[in-house]
Design a protein that fits this description.
The complex is a heterodimer of chains A (183) and B (236). With 183 residues, chain A is of the alpha+beta class. Chain A contains three helices and seven strands. Chain A starts with a strand and ends in a 16-residue tail after the last strand. Chain B has a single domain, classed as BB2672 (60s Ribosomal Protein L30, Chain: A). Chain B is built from six helices and nine strands, in the order ββααββαβααββββα. In chain B, strands 3, 4, 5, 6, 7, 8 and 9 form a seven-stranded mixed sheet that branches. In chain B, strand 1 and strand 2 form a beta hairpin. The longest helix of chain B has 23 residues. Chain B starts with a strand and ends with a helix. Classes of the chains: A alpha+beta (183), B alpha+beta (236). Chains A and B meet through strand 1, strand 2 and helix 1 of A and strand 3 of B. Strand 1 of chain A pairs antiparallel with strand 3 of chain B.
Amino acid sequence: MNIRKIVTIVEEIRTEGGREVWPPAKVAVVAAVIENPWAGQGFVEDLNPGIDANASDLGALLAPQVLQALESPAEAYGKAAIVGLDGEVEHGSALIHTLKFGDHFRKAADATTLLPAVEKRGAAGVVFDIPLKHITDATIRSHHQTVEVRIADAPHPGEIVVALAAAAQGRPQQRLAPLSTEQ
Amino acid sequence: MQETATDHAFGGTLAVDAGASSTLRRADDDGQPAPAETRIGLRKLVLYRDDVITEGGRTPDVPARRASVAAVVRNPWLHTGPTADLSAHTTRIAPVLARLLTDRLLAALGGVDRIEAFGKAAIVGTAGELEHAGALIHTPYFGNLMREFLGGESIICFADTRAEAGETLVVPLWHKTHAATRSHYQTVSARVPDAPRADEIVVIAAASTGPRPHPRIGDRLTDPTVSSQNLETLLS
């Protein structure tokens, strides 16, 4: 796996809707900018060798870093794969949509649910939103949220940005009735 | 007071000045004054950090880590007009921002001894003047404190602009004690997706732990004498 750089973003929200948020609402993102393992190979039918060579290592690299950046236990989480213009969205999906990638994060966060994801193709500097949901119950409405990311010089056409996101809480000022009240 | 924490990208250790942030603790509900962040109209903080692993396919001899920290505050000078005295709010807000932003930078970059280059920036929302952005970063109430907290001596280089929310600002950095050190001329980006609103200002402090990944464009010490006279052939 050839990594060009690792980007860390931490947001701390102190007020929302004009009211104080305390403790501050924190969301962290850690993204690795890597060379697309299938770059320059034309259409590759069997993606498994590339998945085996990269997906678990990526999960192991990113999971501890995003939790350390958050500095709190994660209550919601999500993931992203943003493929440079010369690649297929399938390449990004291959790296993040396997248990061998996601299990590192689930284990480190004591989580049980599947990770919500964004996967798309774009030029360097593309803006992408990572969806986050609760780590043990994806129906918990208070924790449905999104974090926006932009890396000015990534992905290059032959690169993929693979990212994990973690939130220490639900939305700031969350006040929607739970799903069970409508069932 | 110094405390150590695990350096989260590469497993080293970093020193964080915990005493610095203790002055910004939130007061309990016991009649204490509002916390400094609330008094300055702080909405959010965004840290962006960039760790170069390879550049041009090669690991840098001196790997550097660059970071920017952006604070979103309410513009205290809305509708005050272009002749208003800006000093009262400047002296009240800028020092708190200098401490808040440099605390985050020190934690993200591994402490004051690791920081080699610095820069600052501000983005004013569309209802404000650029002069409002300048008021929060160009006076000693911000600059002197930022320089002190980051252990620097140089003038701090800067960028500023007026923009809609989501603007990316490229923040210039140079060496914190020897500004003319060419290897340390570099930039880091800062962006808050939903700020500044028209009535807000984004104030940014940025720093780097080293030079550009592969610096190789010489320095003042190695430059030949260059002038229009001795380049006459090239310029004619």
